[in-house]
Design a protein that fits this description.
Elements lengths: L3 E4 L6 E4 L9 H14 L1 E4 L6 H9 L8 H5 L1 E2 L2 E8 L2 E2 L2 E2 L22 E8 L2 E2 L2 E2 L3 E5 H6 L3 H7 L3 E4 L12 H6 L3 E4 L1 E3 L6 E3 L6 E4 L4 H15 L5 E4 L6 E5 L3 E5 L10 E7 L6
Parallel strand pairs: 2-3
Antiparallel strand pairs: 1-2, 3-18, 4-5, 5-20, 6-7, 8-18, 8-20, 9-10, 11-17, 11-19, 12-13, 12-16, 14-15
């Protein structure tokens, strides 16, 4: 199978053409896809028609599947690996998690071993008067690191930030059991990608509640400055969804946020899977 990698004009992202994910991929094709994923941070495939089992199988090509708290509440029947992301209600009950990820973040950064990446398959995309709604934005934390002045690079290299599960406002209140399962952890502010060796900033407002070795006021100011730097327009790609899109992003080098500019009767339905990762270094 011959594939074509078409980079976006942004600091991150590429479209992969010439692939039908409903069919098994040979090793050479998968290697090309994985190389593009590691290089561009965000890759997407248009016009796909896949089953939940096919999405799970494709996700597993990148490693073990990571389960999270969303899946414990909203998953596809028969496929607990898939989280339903949706604003749809049936019989007065939400079919999936809604209003998730409104603020810039990296998925499950509050865990000791954050996931390698996340995959979203778009089934229904909200639309109003022919205009697509519900875009997702992605920011390159690698490009943001590369743009830092040298004095600031030297100041933050080797420092670790505190990540707290309770720091961010969530789409639903976590239970005490979930809080107990996710105690605060520390990760390096300057993280090295496990496959490419490239460096990136790994710090987020809300999720990061402190920096080791700094007083709280100084830590909060540093977190805010770096978090704002990462999401400057020159580092951001905005994806306009189409039904049949399958998009995946790297949770090490990329941060993202969902644009919540729609509501019922505009419907959004997506299936999400998450790839297990490694301890950040």
């Amino acid at each position: 199978m011959s594939i074509e990698v078409v980079p976006t004009r942004a600091a991150v992202g590429a479209e992969i053409r010439g692939v039908n994910l409903a069919h098994p991929l040979d090793d050479a094709t998968f290697t090309d896809i994985e190389d593009a994923y590691n290089s561009y941070g965000v890759i997407f495939f248009r016009c796909q028609s896949i089953t939940p089992s096919q999405q799970v199988a494709f996700t597993r090509r990148f490693g073990e599947i990571e389960l999270n708290i969303f899946g414990e509440r909203w998953s596809v029947p028969g496929n607990p690996e898939i989280v339903v992301v949706s604003n749809i209600t049936e019989g007065g009950r939400a079919v999936g998690v809604r209003r998730a990820g409104e603020n810039w973040h990296s998925d499950m950064c509050y865990t000791a071993r954050p996931p390698r990446g996340t995959m979203l398959y778009a089934i229904e995309v909200p639309e109003l008067h022919g205009l697509t709604l519900g875009d997702t934005e992605f920011a390159s934390a690698q490009a943001a690191w590369e743009a830092l002045p040298d004095p600031l690079r030297h100041r933050i290299e080797g420092r670790r930030a505190v990540f707290d599960f309770t720091g961010r406002k969530r789409a639903f209140p976590p239970t005490q059991q979930e809080i107990d399962r996710n105690p605060p952890v520390t990760h390096p502010i300057v993280r090295t990608h496990p496959y490419t060796g490239e460096k990136c900033l790994y710090i987020m407002r809300d999720d990061c509640t402190g920096v080791e070795g700094l007083e709280q006021d100084e830590a909060e100011a540093l977190i805010a400055a770096l978090a704002d730097h990462i999401v400057k327009p020159e580092f951001v790609y905005r994806h306009r969804w189409r039904p049949g899109d399958l998009l995946m992003w790297d949770n090490c080098t990329v941060q993202h946020r969902a644009i919540q500019d729609y509501d019922l009767p505009q419907r959004r339905l997506m299936h999400r899977t998450t790839m297990g990762g490694t301890v950040p270094v």
